[in-house]
Write a structure and sequence with these properties.
The chain contains ten helices and ten strands. It is an alpha/beta fold and 246 residues long. The protein folds into two domains: 92 residues, 60s Ribosomal Protein L30, Chain: A; 138 residues, Alpha/beta knot.
Amino acid sequence: MNNSQLKYIKSLNRSKNRKELGVFFIEGKRLIESAILYGADIKNIYMTHDFFAQNSTLVDSILKKNLNHTVIKTKQIEQISFTKTSPGIGAICKMPEKNILPLDNKCWLFLDGISDPGNMGTILRSAAYFNFINIALSKKCVDPFNPKVIRAGMGAHFRVSLIMDTDLNQFKPTHLLIGADQRGKNYKNFQYPEKYVIVFGNEAHGLTEDSLKSLDQFVSIEKKGFGESLNVASASSIIMHFLSER
């Protein structure tokens, strides 16, 4: 790997560069396995000599699918790693194409200004687990392809459909807009229509003023014990689990 390639991969730590280049970088054996399993558009895989020698099953999968790969020195993989300790393997993946919002899909999750990468990744991971795969993000959300979000998502990015920079009002003509908020009805007793959007707000400030003006109804999770509120990742997981069993 030459200096130009090293610089290119290291530049993907910045959101601006990821968006301009249309690619993002993932690291770790499990993430690479998920990317392969779910048919991600993998541009190139980088691994150390030691990783190549010690992970025959994954290497065989890479070779059988004829995926581009490069075996590099440990020093170089440490240079391109976005973690303190490199897992020995990483890959460049293409971002999904920007699509027109598919309003035919009945159930949506809308993330309204989620700013913490860990929360964003956890929400995506839960969404993939409960098969809540249609997810729209407001313009003020953290970049879902931020390395910290990727790590927290644990491969969810390759299972869910992400529509970025979305205006909530785009759903208004076709879906009921439901905000997750403490002023709402108990989420278990709410009568959900065929087509709806569940909206979760920012960790510190909740739903934005613009969203509040657009929302039709509100749902909440009843408190049984101590605490002012739930973390947004926890709250979204509880509601998605309930909706997945309807």
